[in-house]
Give the backbone structure.
Amino acid sequence: MTISLFVSILALVVSVFTAWLTLLRKGTVLMTKPTVIYFGPDGGPSSDERPGLKVYLRTLLYATSKRGRIVESMYVRLRRGETSQNFNIWVYGDKQLNRGSGLFVPESGVAANHHFLLPPDGTAFQFLSGKYILDVFASLVGERTSRLLYSIQLEVSAEQASSLNQSDLGLYFDWGPDAGKYHAHIRTQPKPEIPQFLRELL
């Protein structure tokens, strides 16, 4: 009788815990260390107009709950000394890019390229030499405040900052697992990935 009662109670506890994991627990959204980060022009329209600047990164977003979470919006904040600038126009995807307007993140995660552009309010921003702190934020459905997902410190040399004044060059930070740090290098940016019709909406 005692063993049967113990087994029944144990089964009930397991059932309640399983229900909490799958149905009741909200969890949150986390992200992995970005494999690549980019500072530079976003490509811009096919004219003589100087393209706007952007921050790009590739990462995996994943939920800590079985039922997943919905990311309402994302943005990055770039800090250098006393200067702080938000890049709040969020575009994500791989082959097909979409303006960020909600993304379901399952427990297994979703890997994608994330492009963050400057707001279209005439903001004047320039990549200067120095140490930067890149903060990645996400707004989750059901939460009032944005959540800090990741914070990364990067450094831009004077030579790299000078190269970023050219509209066809970008600065890439590639993660080196053996060295445990990002390796920065300048290279010609690829052709624009953001469709023209989407840029017109920005």
Summary: The chain is about 15% helix and 45% strand. Residues 26-201 form a domain with the Immunoglobulin-like fold (CATH 2.60.40).
